[in-house]
Amino acid sequence: MWLGDDEKDDKLWQILSGLSDDAKVICFANTKRRIDSFQKTFWGKGFDSVALHGDKPQKDRDRDLEKFTKGECWLMFATDVVFATPNSHL
Predict the structure, then answer these.
(1) Helix 5-17 × helix 32-44 angle, to 10°
(2) What's the pTM?
(3) Any idea of the CA torsion for 77, 83, 22, 60, to the nearest 10 degrees?
(4) Euclidean distance between the first and final Cα of the chain, in Å?
(5) Residue ranges of the domains in the chain?
(6) pLDDT truncated to tens, each residue of the chain (90 aa)?
(7) Which stretches make up the Helicase C-terminal domain (predicted)?
(8) Is the distance from CB of 79 to CB of 29 less than 8 angstroms?
(9) pLDDT number for residue 45
(10) Are 39 and 56 in contact (CB under 8 A)?
(11) What are phi and psi of 87, to 5 degrees?
């Protein structure tokens, strides 16, 4: 079964909206454009989230990662490439 991006977004929204308040989620996607789109869409639906990808400056990635790890934000969207970079702190 193949799903389009809109159907995938809807399914992800269903999953995330059903999670408990203490959930911590990292959602991976294959492009920075998709990651930025997720963050904007889910922020618009009331989800505080961070987006990590290789084109963000390291200081912004560090800030967003810290926000996630400290529990200030429970939802992170990231490309798998961001965790394969030499400057990754995970």
Answers:
(1) 50
(2) 0.80
(3) -70
(4) 34
(5) 21-84
(6) 787 888 888 888 899 888 988 899 999 988 899 999 888 988 888 888 999 988 889 899 999 999 999 999 999 999 876 565 555 554
(7) 8-81
(8) yes
(9) 82
(10) no
(11) -90, 5
